Automatic annotation (TrEMBL):
Residues 4-83 form the ATP synthase F1 complex delta/epsilon subunit N-terminal domain. The gene is atpC. It holds the Pfam family ATP-synt_DE. It comes from Velocimicrobium porci. This is ATP synthase epsilon chain. One of its GO terms (cellular component) is proton-transporting ATP synthase complex. It is found in: Cell membrane. Belongs to the ATPase epsilon chain family.
């Protein structure tokens, strides 16, 4: 069985480092399959699903961000800005986090507006006091 070494490196972690039989990556012009003894090359990777098959035949799916794969001397390195197992990405959790962040932004701006208008009001009140003092 022909294998090659594969390292999947994301900006925050090494996702995989070991031997595999096959790597399929999302390239700009469609999926590309890389097998052992693939010609030396560098291929741009776009966001999407990559999969690789390890020595024992297990297929692992990984959602990758942008990056590239480099194949040199039967060693592949997949460098991407992110690599996650699909089951690790809980879509609803991500949605909730997004909503929370948006709500915090709204609250923050309304608090700033409140203090801003409170300060404007205080300035206006002190001006009124000043003018009323001068007119008596």
């Amino acid at each position: 069985m022909n294998t090659f070494s594969l390292r999947i490196v994301a900006s925050d972690k090494i996702f995989f480092d070991g031997k595999c039989q096959l790597l399929v990556i999302p390239a700009i012009d469609g999926e590309k399959a890389i097998m052992s003894h693939h010609e030396d090359s560098v291929i741009a990777v776009t966001m999407g699903e990559a999969r690789f098959q390890t020595e024992d035949g297990t297929i692992t799916k990984v959602l990758v961000g942008k990056g590239f794969v480099q194949m040199i001397n039967n060693r592949a390195v997949l460098l991407v800005d992110s690599a996650e197992r699909p089951e690790d990405i809980d879509v609803q959790r991500a949605e909730r986090a997004k909503e929370r962040a948006e709500e915090q932004m709204r609250q923050k701006s309304s608090i700033q507006e409140y203090y801003h208008s409170k300060a404007s009001l205080a300035r206006a009140m002190s001006r009124l006091k000043e003018t009323s003092r001068h007119h008596h």
